[in-house]
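=== Structure Prediction Worksheet ===
Name of assembly: unnamed complex
Input type: mixed (protein and possibly other molecules)
Chain count: two
Listed entries:
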Amino acid sequence: MSTYGPPHLQRRTLLKLGIASAVVLAVAGGAVALMQPGLKNGKLTEESRLVFSRAGQTILAGTLPVDAGPNQIAINALLDRIDTFISGTPEHVQAELSQLLGLLGTAAGRRGVIGLASSWHDATVPEMTTAFQGMRESSVSLRIQAYHALHDIVSASYFSGEESWAVLGYPGPRAV
Amino acid sequence: MSLPDPIKEGLARGWKVLGGAHGALPPSITCDVAIIGSGAGAGITAELLTKAGLKVVIIEEGQLKSSTDFKQREPEAYASLYQEAAGRQTKDKGITILQGRSVGGTTTVNWTSSFRTPPDTLKYWQEKFGLKDYTPEALAPYFQQAEERLNIGPWQTSPNENNELLRRGAAKLGIKAEVIPRNVKGCYNLGSCGMGCPVNAKQSMLVTTIPFALDGGATLLVETRAEKFEISNGRVQGLSCIAVKPNAAPVNTALPATQIIAKHYVLAGGSINSPALLLRSGAPDPHKQLGTRTFLHPVAITTAIMAKTVSAWDGAPQSIYSDHYLNTQPIDGPMGFKLEVAPLHPVFFGANLPGFGQKQAELFRQYPNANVMLALMRDGFHDQAVGGKVELRGNGSPLLDYPLTDYVLEGARRGMLAMAEIQFEAGAKTVYPGHEMGTGTSTWADTKKAIEALPMKPLLTKIGSAHVMGGCGLAGDAQRGVTRTDGVHWQLENLSIHDGSLFPTSIGANPQLSIYGSVNRLAQGLAKRLTGKEVTLA
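=== Predicted Assembly ===
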């Protein structure tokens, strides 16, 4: 419901970010029409968990444990903390994130925004690293905004966990 | 031994606090003065008006948290003590804004740096905005009272290495760096100011003026958003408030709003939020000034890995600064900037380091040796630095449109150059500019060349902000601002604005003491007009 502005101007705030973004959406084709929300009841959907789990493995490569078992435990903890983080954000942030994740969950959105040809499931970390580097330095606002969203949420959520302190050499707060 | 918690003690004494777990909001409240917000401007106003014998209601959107809740943990602090869970961003997402949102406002989470408004800034206000009585001399007694009330003075303890290296590097270059005055009493030097002071040493509004007002009979509504003023005949007739959840969503849209009827209203929700309430209310704005000229001190950063351990999480977060790059050029010339350092805790460090993957992993492991320097750019003094404009989203929440101009971004480049040179002089092994295309370089010559070659574009250049100012600017006439020099809205006679949104430019220094000093004078004037009584702080 829109109280303070014309509804047609208030929808899809993430998706009306200028001409360059419109180009990405054109590349993404009909994805917008097909996409499902990336959050359900304020939590990551299964598809969104996959996006963040692969983004986490890329962004935190070299930081997360290498062995498959401990790596999966770390990723699961990361995803849970991302859910906690999202629950503390305002409605408009959740709405935007839901749209972004919905878009990234479609094949066309993944290709157009991330620059990733392989599926989220099949992409290798080197493939994703190349794609993320492309997003990071992109001149297209939506791509670099998507990179920042994934990077900042993954980093902030990972370092919210006390198990990350050992990686940094942070002794924890002083007792009072 | 457990430390005292003045908030829990006050609640046990019977403070009138409603909202959230403290009790349901009543359908209506009548009072002398309704104060919207509980931060720097609201706190000072609440103390003075209570002292004058007025019946005051304070309305705060955030939660009431206190020292026993402050566990020095970033995730809990960011979620409960900051606007938009510390993720408030400008419209194009080019700037992330740290702004407080709990009882005490930003004073609960700031890093305690306390500067009087610089004389150059006041001179500009006199000349450009007709603020004739905004001189250092006229404001001095009001600053002095605030300094006494909040125990503000230069930090006497040795700076931590994070700050000391700014002084050391600057000295080698012949650049003056000085000690920062702080509002602390019995500081444990923990370094956790940004997560709420666990030992009540920081003299924030949370532990000073708000308790004073509550002890004096004021009512505090928490988790309560001032939604809309009812306006007619050049006056505010009432204020609708709704209960909100910790993430600012309405508790129940079906519930009727609480109506607050006051003789006078004081808007002190901080920049961005204060103009937004006036926009939601359809307040008169004949000269299209409302929400414009909202300033951020956009901050450029460089990260250095020092040869020696820094432990930037430990000790008073900010104790050394340099105004060299503010004072050595004209105020309306190339953008000036203040130099300070940032305390580094894991989440802040992880989210602010540019890059990802293996390269970033190597940097994470050098965290104990990391220093992040800040160049706070002075916006509002040039026609290419007119700040941002507050807009409303469809649900009425505020959104700041702050386009980063080439002028500002060139200021960021000069700031990064200045900081990198100081960091190398202080013993940096490698310096990383805050830019997505920045890579670490290990000599000043290489770093200089690299920073000079960076494309300075929004989103590529990492820009943050912890200071929000303007949007309801003071002016000597109605054409140039929203607020009269006595703090009253130009078109609404029973509405005063008492927060950082008053400032017609950025301050050029951390703004808390500028708010305390200016509002101290405005609130004393308001108390006199409403009651005939002379009251002072302290």
